[in-house]
Specification:
By secondary structure, this protein is an alpha+beta fold. The protein has one domain: Vaccinia Virus protein VP39 (Rossmann fold). The protein is built from 3 helices and 4 strands. A two-stranded parallel ribbon has the order 1-2. Strands 3-4 form a two-stranded antiparallel ribbon. Helix 1 packs parallel to helix 2. It is globular, with a radius of gyration of 14 Å. The termini are far apart.
């Protein structure tokens, strides 16, 4: 039996729907694209958002690599399978040091 590594943060759970409502107003869900989530934390948000935007590919990131297993656990539950494996990004550093390929404003 595989144990879930999901961590649960109540504030993330409380604010995921209000944040989603803002995203729905500003993101065209009919077009494919890529989304870089900065500071993904537990993965609660990215998994909630990804299922509502199946044409978008989400790239979670987090400086605390101990949260990667939680992000992966939440991601595995998303039926759309549009969440990449988390990457380490320290948002307090210059973005030019991040290990990203940026093409036409799209992060890969």
């Amino acid at each position: 039996m595989l144990l879930s590594c999901k961590k649960f943060f109540p504030p993330s759970d409380r604010n995921k729907d209000p944040i989603l409502q803002v995203l729905l107003k500003h993101i065209d869900s009919s077009k494919p694209g890529n989304v870089l989530e900065i500071s993904s934390g537990t993965g609660q948000h990215v998994s909630h958002f990804a299922s509502r935007f199946p044409l978008l590919t989400f790239q979670p990131s987090e400086v605390d690599t101990t949260l990667f297993d939680s992000i992966r656990s939440y991601s595995l539950e998303v039926e759309t399978k549009n969440i990449r494996d988390p990457i380490k990004i320290d948002a307090s550093t210059d973005y030019n040091t991040w290990d990203l390929i940026i093409t036409r404003g799209i992060c890969m």
